[in-house]
Design brief:
heterodimer, A: about 300 residues, alpha/beta, Rossmann fold, seven-stranded mixed sheet, 12 strands, about 35% helix, about 20% strand, B: about 600 residues, alpha+beta, Beta-Lactamase, Alpha-Beta Plaits, 3 domains, six-stranded antiparallel sheet, 15 helices, about 45% helix, rod-shaped
Chain lengths: ~300, ~600
């Protein structure tokens, strides 16, 4: 990072109030990443920063109250994770940091990535672009894939776009897709059961807090059903997923904490460009490959992998 | 007297002060100037080294990409090797993190392989890229560096194209994410807050330690363009200008030649000249200490000089006012102390001199001036009491009492004044001692206090002159209707002489029979008569014609003494109309109304 921790210059008596707004549910790995980032910037919760958590799992409408509270209260910064950002568009006088999979310009949160121009800025994961790349990599690792089950939390905003991009890529690669949506945590198990019934020979799971939280269950399910699996983040692979390709989550939330620091120091979100990840990690879990009986030696994914779990 | 406006104290003080402060200031200023020059030079060097290092690393970054790209255009294109080429491309992506995507173009200019980190890969015959400037440029120069472009108006990208040795090897075009230069630029720290940045020819920011400035889609490009042109104009030497954050910076630029970018190394002026400021502060503190020291020193020195001078001045003033006992105490162990000693000596001598002159003045009351001088300059003991042979002369006006009864006081005083003047003049001429005037009487001593040769003779001549002088006056007085005459008595003998009185009023006088005798003789003498005792007569009888007037009974003497009268007389008779005429010596005892004969003295000398 370019700003050394030691250079912290906050008013020591001031306790900054930060709203953490999410449509997901706890435990929240993103919150953990953000907190870690704050700590690295020298913030200590309870001493000079107070995180106020607002969760409305799967129900962005429920966040309206939070928004009105935001408008009333003396809040220094709001951080919205994922889909909750949409509910925040009504906020105009409090800086809002977001972490989005989609395009913030399309969502009308910022004027441009370079110059957000308003009270919103943050990070975008480019999930949409990577959707096709994941299908391609899965095909590369397991060239025999013909029918791909796409497992998606339908409550995740932008999920439809991602699904479309995935379907197009799969079609281009000659792969048949089976779309298996589930609506929130309650439907997760049912969704998995549906995947089991889909007669697919591979599984693609959209990155999402819910699937991230239940990554072990999903990975185990995939292994149990002998499905080569493709995920968005490396955490899934650590839990037993076969492949993952995407930006490093921790790095992104770490970066978000840096922006939070700069905004608390008085910089305007309007001048802080939306950050896009530069490095995409390809992680391969060779143990899972072995259990699935997949020989990756001939594939290009092994030498392309940033990390191989053996 | 007005005191001069600029005192010696101020002059001395200012001179000393300036003498100490001027070299100090000059020294400090010179030191500061040299420190500034050296610091400026060092800063220039440092910034140049950093800028060059950054430029070299950027060059290494692009050269590394170029060299890596060279690998995939080593072999000529053959049929059916697209997949192998694709693997080459993927491996290249693996090798060079900055490459986001690669297009491999065959000799005909057709894209055959496209691999990307984000987008879907493509193999097989693709679009025609023969007119793409990257392909054209690479074919012409083997290597082509494209302009910087900003993807989605935010992230800086650049295309690099490399052609093989032979046209058959085709061209590879890579899209480079320049955000990765950030690692290079962010690693450059100049001092604590100095940094390096990279701008392209149009002045757009390519790399900056604060990456958000780069991603800001060219906002503030004008500011960076200005910075670039200002710093580039300095041609490699450090220039002070305003940085991108509006604060003054010292900056140096170096060009990264292959890509045509400008690397600027800059350091805030505040930090860059920190050591100079520290040096200046040191100098300033030294100067202040020096000034205080100089003030104290100059003040002390000036006081040491000025104090004694004031003392001397004061001393002179007091001496001038007559305080001759004033003494100056200066213990400076230098010329001033010497001066004070001399001054004290001078005051002492002045006092002695004044004392002496007072004494002389006093002596002049009863001594002829020349005798007074003689007395003063000879032995001081002359005035001491002693017994010696003296000639006492008494004179007295006749008919004065009657005159005072009739005359106006003014006339009396005028007569006395003329009388005293005449007596004084005669006494002075004969260097005798005028003891006192008492009304119309006068007492004169000869041979005391100053001894003289033949005092008797001198006394007689004095008496004759005295008589002549007074008689010349009485003529005028008698003409105004006053009957005043003058008689003189002379006696010689031992008497006790000396000063008598108290310190404010000292008189020189003689005590003894001779004085009484002279007084009695004076009383006996008629107008124009000079009566002489036998002792004087014994001394002068050979040279002065004396006539005995017979033995006279003198008060205080057991037996009568033979008294002589000087034979040469004036005859100032008021009752008769007479003139001075030459007369022969009358016998002693000639009466008052007789015609005074012309003196016929035979001078002893």
């Amino acid at each position: 990072m370019a700003w050394p921790t030691a250079a912290l210059a906050q008013d020591s008596t001031r306790v900054y109030r930060i709203f953490w707004v999410s449509t997901d549910s706890q435990p929240d790995p993103f919150l953990a990443g953000f907190r870690e980032g704050l700590r690295a910037r020298g913030y200590v919760e309870g001493k000079n920063v107070a995180l106020e958590l607002h969760y409305a799992p799967g129900n962005p409408q429920a966040l309206r109250e939070v928004v009105s509270e935001l408008k009333r209260g003396n809040i220094d910064l709001a951080v919205s994770s994922g889909p909750a950002t949409r509910a925040m568009t009504a906020v105009t006088d409090v800086p809002v940091l977001f972490a989005l999979s989609g395009d913030p310009v399309e969502l009308d949160l910022v004027k441009s990535l370079g110059e957000p121009g308003g009270n919103f800025t943050g990070s975008t994961f480019l999930s949409l672009e990577l959707a096709g790349k994941r299908v391609e990599l899965l095909k590369e690792a397991v060239p025999t894939v013909r029918r791909l089950a796409v497992f998606s939390n339908s409550l995740h905003p932008g999920e439809q776009s991602e699904w479309r991009a995935t379907r197009e890529a799969a079609t281009a690669l000659g792969i048949e897709t089976v779309y298996v949506p589930f609506a929130g945590k309650s439907e997760l198990d049912n969704g998995l059961a549906a995947v089991g019934d889909a007669r697919a020979d591979a599984l693609l799971v959209f990155p999402d807090v819910l699937t991230l939280v239940h990554r072990a269950k999903i990975a185990d399910f995939a292994i149990a059903h002998r499905l080569p699996s493709m995920f968005g983040w490396s955490e899934y692979c650590d839990a037993g997923g076969l492949l993952s390709y995407g930006a490093n989550q921790r790095a992104t939330y770490f970066w978000l904490a840096t922006y939070a620091d700069r905004i608390l120091r008085g910089e305007k979100p309007a001048n802080l460009p939306v950050f896009q990840p530069t490095k995409f990690e390809l992680v391969v879990n060779l143990r899972t490959a072995e259990r699935l009986g997949i020989d990756l030696d001939k594939s290009s994914v092994l030498f392309r992998a940033n990390r191989v779990i053996e | 007297m007005t005191r001069p406006r600029r005192s010696l104290f101020m002059k001395y003080f200012v001179t000393l002060f300036v003498a100490v402060v001027t070299p100090l200031m000059l020294g400090s200023a010179t030191e500061a100037w040299f420190a500034f020059r050296d610091n400026r030079f060092d800063l220039n060097e440092l910034l140049q080294v950093e800028a060059r290092s950054a430029a070299d690393r950027i060059q290494a970054f692009t050269d590394g990409i170029r060299d890596q790209l060279g690998w995939v255009v080593q072999f000529p294109w053959t049929q059916g090797e697209d997949d192998r080429r694709r693997i080459d491309g993927l491996r290249l992506l693996q090798q060079v993190p900055a490459i986001v995507s690669l297009s491999m173009v065959d000799p005909t200019g057709t894209e055959r392989v496209f691999v990307s980190r984000v987008s879907m890969n493509r193999t097989g015959r693709g679009g025609d890229m023969s007119a793409d400037p990257a392909v054209v440029g690479a074919r012409a120069n083997r290597v082509w560096y494209g302009p910087v472009h900003y993807q989605r108006d935010s992230e800086p990208y650049m295309r690099i194209a490399v052609a093989g040795n032979r046209a058959a090897a085709g061209v590879v075009v890579a899209d480079i994410n320049l955000k990765l230069i950030w690692d290079i630029i962010a690693a450059i720290k100049i001092g604590d807050t100095g940094h390096a940045l990279v701008v392209d020819d149009s002045g757009r920011l390519i790399a900056h330690p604060d990456i958000s400035l780069v991603l800001r889609s060219g906002a503030g490009a004008g500011e960076f363009d200005r910075l670039k042109s200002v710093v580039s104009a300095a041609n490699g030497s450090a220039v002070t200008t305003t940085g991108e954050d509006g604060k003054p910076v010292v900056a140096v630029s170096v060009r990264a030649p292959n890509v045509g970018w400008t690397v600027i190394a800059q350091q805030p002026v505040l930090e860059a000249f920190e050591s100079i400021r520290a040096a200046l502060w040191r100098s300033l503190v030294l100067i202040v200490i020096g000034i205080v020291f100089a003030l104290v020193l100059a003040y002390w020195r000036a006081c040491r000089l000025w104090g004694p001078i004031r003392q001397l001045e004061d001393g002179v003033e007091r001496i001038g006012m007559g305080q001759l006992d004033h003494r100056i105490t200066i213990k400076s162990h230098d010329e001033l102390e010497q001066l004070a000693i001399r001054f004290n000596q001078m005051a002492e001598e002045l006092a002695a001199s004044q004392h002496k002159s007072e004494r002389i003045n006093r002596l002049k009351q009863f001594l002829a001036p020349q005798v007074a001088e003689l007395v003063e300059h000879s032995d001081q003991r002359l005035l001491d009491a002693q017994r010696r042979e003296v000639v006492a002369i008494f004179g007295d006006l006749r008919g004065f009492t009657a005159f005072t009864a009739r005359a106006e006081p003014d006339a009396i005083l005028a007569v006395l004044r003329q009388y005293y003047e005449a007596i004084g003049a005669v006494t002075a001429r004969h260097e005798a001692t005028l003891i006192r005037f008492a009304g119309d009487g006068v007492m004169v001593l000869v041979n005391a206090p100053v001894a003289c040769e033949n005092p008797a003779h001198r006394g007689v001549r004095l008496a004759i002159d005295m008589q002549a002088a007074v008689q010349s006056l009485t003529g005028a007085w008698n003409a105004r209707g006053c009957a005043i005459g003058f008689g003189v008595g002379i006696a010689m003998g031992p008497a006790t002489v000396g000063t008598l009185g108290w310190h404010e009023r000292l008189d020189y006088t003689a005590i003894g029979n001779v004085v009484n005798l002279a007084s009695r003789l004076c009383d006996l003498a008629d107008d124009a008569q000079i009566l002489v005792d036998p002792v004087v007569t014994g001394h002068v009888k050979d040279s002065v014609a004396l006539a005995s007037i017979g033995e006279q009974a003198i008060k205080g003497y057991d037996r009568a003494l033979e008294v002589f009268a000087v034979g040469c007389m004036y005859a100032p008779i008021r009752h008769f109309d007479y003139r001075f005429q030459t007369a022969h010596v009358q016998p002693a005892g000639a009466k008052f109304d007789r015609i005074a004969p012309e003196p016929s003295l035979t001078d002893a000398d």
